């Protein structure tokens, strides 16, 4: 049996075991979703991103470390990984190789990108590598609003890149899941309907999120928390984050690894 097929069935069986464990004990025996930050470099300066407070060294994850991490996660039965966190994965020159390695080990790889450098060649490489899910972050409908939110970005270029990739994906088997994401803020909330009208039906899912206000980043939210409605984040019990230098942390918002609880290196 090919390695990829064997790994697929192994992960499905461990997934069933995890589900039964959750029902019986209320806890997962392993994370079912892991952020593996393959790079913390980016080509944009988005207004809601805290990257200007990043004190970690800008780097790509060492290829040996990445392979070790994927093998460890596969051995644990982790079904999927997100190959991004505080950077755009398309800024990694060997992204397709990393996607293929995860897939070969039975793990479904996902990326989230601004699509600025999603050329036709790179799109084909990702499809052939076995990318499971791709999320496009597009936070505007008009060039003016888009430029205000995604500073350094070009809306027409992004749209063209995404539409070309969607056409390639529709003709590729297996076809990845495609998602368009819109981070709603006070800068772009008036364009939500226009965003929906343009993208609905072109992708598998539209995903609307609320901007997160990191320490020192204020004034973008479209709502206010009420103290009595605050709840602990459930991701602590089901997800894990591995930063580009190998630091293991509990939270996907831990910009500088201050909550580090281990080292995957």
UniProtKB/TrEMBL annotation:
Cofactor dependence: [4Fe-4S] cluster
Swiss-Prot/TrEMBL GO biological process terms: molybdopterin cofactor biosynthetic process
Domain of life the protein comes from: Bacteria
Keywords: 4Fe-4S, Iron, Iron-sulfur, Metal-binding, Oxidoreductase, S-adenosyl-L-methionine
Radical SAM core domain ranges (all copies): 28-245
Pfam families reported for this sequence: Radical_SAM
Keyword S-adenosyl-L-methionine recorded: yes
Protein name in UniProt: Radical SAM core domain-containing protein
Organism: Candidatus Coatesbacteria bacterium RBG_13_66_14
């Amino acid at each position: 049996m090919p390695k990829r097929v064997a790994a697929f069935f192994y992960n499905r069986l461990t997934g069933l075991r995890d589900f039964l464990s959750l029902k019986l004990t209320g806890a997962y025996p392993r994370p079912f979703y892991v952020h593996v930050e393959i790079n913390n470099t980016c080509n944009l300066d988005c207004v809601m991103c805290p990257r200007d407070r990043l004190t970690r060294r800008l780097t790509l994850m060492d290829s040996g470390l990445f392979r070790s991490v994927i093998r460890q996660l596969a051995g644990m039965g982790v079904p999927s990984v997100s190959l991004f966190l505080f950077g755009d994965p398309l800024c990694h020159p060997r992204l397709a190789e990393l996607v293929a390695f995860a897939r070969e080990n039975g793990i479904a790889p996902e990326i989230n990108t601004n699509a600025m450098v999603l050329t036709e060649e790179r799109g084909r490489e990702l499809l052939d590598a076995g990318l499971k899910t791709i999320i496009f972050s597009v936070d505007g409908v008009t060039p003016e609003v888009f430029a205000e939110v995604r500073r350094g970005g070009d809306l027409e270029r992004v749209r063209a890149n995404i539409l070309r990739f969607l056409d390639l994906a529709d003709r590729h088997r297996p076809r990845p899941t495609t998602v368009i994401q819109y981070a709603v803020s006070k800068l772009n909330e008036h364009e939500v309907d226009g965003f929906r009208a343009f993208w609905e039906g072109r992708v598998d899912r539209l995903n609307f999120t609320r901007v997160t206000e990191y320490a020192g980043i204020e004034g973008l939210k479209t709502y206010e928390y009420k103290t009595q409605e605050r709840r602990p984040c459930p991701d602590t019990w089901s997800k894990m984050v591995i930063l580009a230098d190998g630091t293991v942390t509990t939270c996907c918002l831990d910009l500088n690894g201050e909550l580090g609880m281990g080292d995957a290196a």
